Structure formats: structure tokens, C-alpha cells
Amino acid sequence: MSKRIAIFTSGGDCAGLNAVMRAAVLRASSLGWEVIGIENGTAGLLQDPPRYKVLNPNDFTGTVMRMGGTILGTTNSRNPFAYEMDDGSIIDRSDELIAAFKALDIESIIGIGGDGSFDILSRLVEQGGLNFVGVPKTIDNDVNMTDFAVGYDTAVSVATEALDRLQPTAASHDRVMILEVMGRDAGHIALTAGIAGGADVILIPEIPYTIEKVAEKINNLKKNGRNFALVVVSEAVNTPDGEKHEVVYHGGETRYGGIGEYLCMKIAKATGSETRATVLGHVQRGASPTYNDRLLASALGVKAVELLAEGVYGRMVAWQNGDVVDVAIEDAIKECNIVDINGMRVHTARSLGISFGD
Ligand code: F6P
Q: Is it the case that residue 252 has pLDDT exceeding 90?
């Protein structure tokens, strides 16, 4: 009998999501399975009529696997346990969602998400007796138990290219350029792109800094004849006295943002240099996936289907030391994967003379 599985993307989008779907659909099709793509995260199934589509191998032969974004749509604000209705009321729609999966004859699902989505999905599948396998994706690379999450490599490439573009203009105008990158509470994007893109200063949430130390680094560069400097800062970096920089959006949702402009003023004052800030923002999420992300997405998508075929559930597929493995979802979401301040990348950066402002 042919089996039906569902796949969806959950949380913020990133490059490589369509490539995961392609891999899962091709592998499932080789087993004679049908794949249903749920639209707009799991929220698509809570709409009337439910929003989903059958995904066929032919859907992925053209440009789709090369595209950023997700052909299914996604959301990071439709928690089925606390679902915000159009009238603003918040209700628990988890039972309704489980019933919607069952009405479609779906017992096994592949969720492409981050730790927040996995936390919610684990509760849901336990409540509904559904079989679940997770595929990690996030530009922040903060999911535990995997060396890389889908989308991170592309985001780092975009941030590195931004530094490549900022350097000539910085040098032309004798300026200090500050690049604010995403990453939520983990400094992975800033650290890796900073090393790859020749930053002079990298500021990440994991390492406390002072403006004096940042200024000292920049002034030393100047003394040695350098006429520009590049500073990369993670969006979640606080001011040295612990104040957060956040933006409040319509509806009261907050996101990190603004530390770049803060540093721009402070560094100008402390060094006498002309400074400019660039906020890279969602540009980091929107690119065509790099080959590394396509490889990762393909390997993880295939493995996710194979786990379902073996009857292995409640797992997250992961990339560890060049191989694809599976780990317990609970271990993946137990804690956030932040930068190891005693790890290889911080050591490498320090050895290159890059300052962390400490
Ligand atoms: O988690 C991915 C991420 O891009 C973070 O780096 C960033 O802080 C956040 O999502 C932005 O969220 P939104 O897309 O809701 O603005």
C-alpha cells in the first residue's frame, strides 16, 4: 500500500529549504510514497479549506531547488498551542491540527525547522500519536547536535560578500565600516564571516567587550598606516553596560536590531574616525543556496525519509563530522548552540589579530 507523508517548512525561511523538499520528494517517490506539502507551516492545515499540495518529483526539475525561500511558505508566529485568531484572541488549536493530519491520512511528517519549531512539533506529535522527523534549518546555526543547519552557509557567504563590498568603499573614504549581521543569540554568522571577510573587530554576544578596546584596535591600525577598518557585529550584542538593542514591530513583536548604529556613534567618538553602519538584515536569508547548503539539504532530506522508512521517529537528522546521522529531538532542543569561545574559530580569529573588543 502506498504511504502518504507530509512535509512543511516552519519558522523563518532561509536558503536551501526547497532543496530539502526536493531530496525528500525524490527519495519518497523511489519508495512509492506520496508527499503532501503543507503550506504556511502547519498553519495551512488550520485554514478553510486546508492549504496543501501534492509534491511530485517533476516539481523540482527546474529552478526550484536553486531558489531561496520556500515554495510552501512558512511562518514563525502560528503556534498551534497558542494560535492568534483574526480577532486577536489566542486559542489552542493543537487537536484541530492533529485531526487535520489524520483526515488527510497522514501519520508521518517531516518538519524543516529550528529549535523553536521542533519544541512545538514534539509536543504536537506526542499528543497526536504522529511520527515525526525534523530537519534543522536556520541561518543562525544555533540548533544543537548538528555541525550545520541548512541556510547557515549561504548566510555566511552573503555576509562575507558584504564585507568584500564594504572594504573598497571603506578604504576609498578612510572610514570604519560596521556591518550588523543576524544570528539571534549566537554569534556564528559574525564570527565565520568576520574571519572569511577580513574583519578587524568581531563583536559577538558570547564575548563581552568595551568600546575602549575596540577603539584601541582601530587606533593601532591607524598608527600602522591603515586608513580603514571593518567591524562585524551580531545583532544580539548588547551595549557594554548590558542594554539590548531591539526593534518593536507592529503588533508588539520584537526583533534584535540597532547595535550597528549605536557602535557607529561610539566608535566615531572614541577614535575620531568617520564611521558608517550597514544592517544586512533579511538579505542573508534570501539568496540562492550555496553548494554546501544544497549538499547538506540533499543529504538531510534523503536521510529524513529513510528514517521514516525504517520506522525511526522522534529524531532530528544532523550533520556531524562530514556524515549524516540522527539524534533525539530532545537533545537537539535542550540547549542553544552558541559560539564556543575556546573553540577553533575564536582561536583562529585571535591568531589573525582580530579583536573581540575584550
Ligand atoms: O532566526 C532567523 C532570523 O533571521 C534571526 O537571525 C533574526 O533575528 C530573525 O530571524 C528575524 O526574524 P523576522 O524574519 O521575523 O524578522
A: no
